[in-house]
Specification:
The chain crosses the membrane at residues 7-23, 29-47, 54-72, 123-142, 154-174, 194-213, 225-247, 253-274, 313-334, 346-364, 376-394, 403-422. With 434 residues, this protein is an all-alpha fold. Helix content is 67%, strand content 1%. The chain has one domain. It has 21 helices and two strands. It has a two-stranded antiparallel ribbon.
């Protein structure tokens, strides 16, 4: 590594520390300015990756994540719900059937008012799957909230390390340089949202890339097992089963879905036939009918609803977006050529899900980045920069979404997507098809 790269690495680490430990989510100008500089350094390092060894890329990626080991997340409160759920289980309460607000009425150990006040959804039952709850329970064994956060971060770090190991191998499989892992390893949004804010998309990415890797090796049964684990951590990856359609014979595809479904069923068995499952479904339903953030197609339908009905029609358009997402994913994977690689099918399938989502937080697009790196498309990288600007809506008193920022985000994103699609069709590139 030459001196310019060393300077860039040092600056990257310093700004990462500053944005993580000393910048509040409501400090919009400082937050976005630092992120922009951080992203610029990331682009420079990625562009000069030929001067950096793969070992150095992996080593610095791990170092930057370890710098955040004792961080109390400053961009999201989700981790406090994780710990709350774990402590409820520790007290013999079911997080799927007892609301946080109900638990505070009981004299229970470890459920402090300060922890409750940090929750962003105290009126909802937990929606996190049992395998996540197990990790929350382990973390809740620690008396101190900070130690609980560190324990959860160690789990997320384990998933991230797994991705840093498997992604370079998958890149080589799909005809790319292993050093292209730098686009994921040093991506500021990846570091801040996964290791920093402790979102469990880290597990989705690891298991889905592992599934992709084993499929490419011709071991589709192993691929199905890992896909089942991805679904176990968050139900959304079930859409990726459609991407395997036409890549296998119908019989093998059905077996693939059966294996993945069995892994998922085993993981969710503790609540499948209990009142807990009902509570989880109820909260998930409310999520689609009540929450909205950074939508694209949904926001267009919402605007039409205001014009037509003179009120927000999310109660009907929210579920409709889910149906349209399912149909679009199904149609794409039926119509797409068999020669399109499994990684590209994963990417477009996830992209379609994002387009119809009523709520699209920055970390939701991170699996798209991992899948995109296994193709020749670059728009997921751009999106990891643009989507961070949705944080501009946070203030000390609450949140008010800036729709101009959302509009610019999608105009720039869709323009680049169209540019890449046209450029790809005009090239003589032959995809690595398996």
């Amino acid at each position: 590594m030459k001196l310019p790269q060393k300077i860039a690495i040092a600056l990257f680490g310093l700004i990462l520390l500053s944005i993580s430990y000393f910048t509040g989510r409501s400090d919009s100008f400082l937050l976005l300015s630092q992120f922009t500089v951080l992203f610029g350094l990331y682009l420079y390092l990625a562009a000069t990756r030929d001067k950096i060894s793969l070992a150095e890329i992996t080593g610095f990626a791990l170092l930057f994540r370890l710098l955040l080991l004792f961080l109390i997340p400053n961009l999201s409160e989700d981790v406090f719900r994780f710990i709350w759920d774990g402590k409820m289980w520790l007290n013999g309460l079911n997080a799927y059937t007892v609301l946080p607000s109900e638990a505070t009425n009981q004299e229970l150990q470890h459920l402090s008012p300060s922890l409750f006040n940090s929750l962003n959804s105290p009126a909802y039952y937990s929606i996190y799957p049992p395998i996540n709850q197990l990790l929350f329970y382990i973390a809740a064994l620690a008396e101190n909230t900070t130690f609980s956060i560190v324990i959860i971060r160690l789990f997320v770090l384990a998933a991230e390390i797994g991705t840093l190991i498997i992604l370079p191998k998958a890149l080589v499989q799909f005809g790319h340089s292993a050093k292209n892992v730098i686009w994921y390893a040093l991506n500021p949004l990846v570091i801040l949202e996964l290791t920093g804010s402790l979102h469990f998309e880290a597990f989705i990415i690891f298991f889905a890339v592992l599934a992709c890797y084993h499929y490419k090796k011709g071991k589709w049964k192993k691929s199905a097992i890992w896909m089942g684990f991805a679904i176990a951590f968050k139900l959304i990856p079930v859409i990726l089963l459609a991407a395997v359609f036409k890549k296998l014979s119908f019989k093998k595809w059905f077996q693939y879905c059966l294996i993945a479904g069995l892994v998922f069923a085993i993981s969710i068995a503790p609540v499948l036939f209990s009142n807990g499952f009902k509570g989880m479904i109820e909260s998930s339903s409310l999520y689609f009918k009540s929450f909205e953030f950074n939508g694209s197609i949904y926001y267009l339908s919402r605007a039409f609803g205001y014009w037509w009905k003179n009120y927000n029609i999310i109660a009907t358009t929210g579920p409709l977006m889910g149906i349209l997402s399912f149909i679009s994913i199904l149609v794409y994977n039926i119509m797409v050529k068999k020669s399109v690689s499994i990684a590209e099918k994963f990417m477009w399938t996830w992209f379609l899900y994002c387009l119809f989502a009523t709520t699209l937080h920055p970390w939701y697009c991170l699996p798209l980045l991992a899948f995109g790196l296994l193709t020749h498309y670059k728009f997921p990288i751009l999106w990891t920069f643009l989507i961070f600007f949705t944080y501009i809506g946070y203030t000390e008193s609450g949140f008010q979404e800036n729709l101009w920022i959302t509009l610019m985000e999608y105009i720039l994103l869709f323009t680049f997507v169209v540019f890449e699609i046209i450029g790809r069709r005009g090239s003589k590139f032959t995809p690595n098809s398996k």
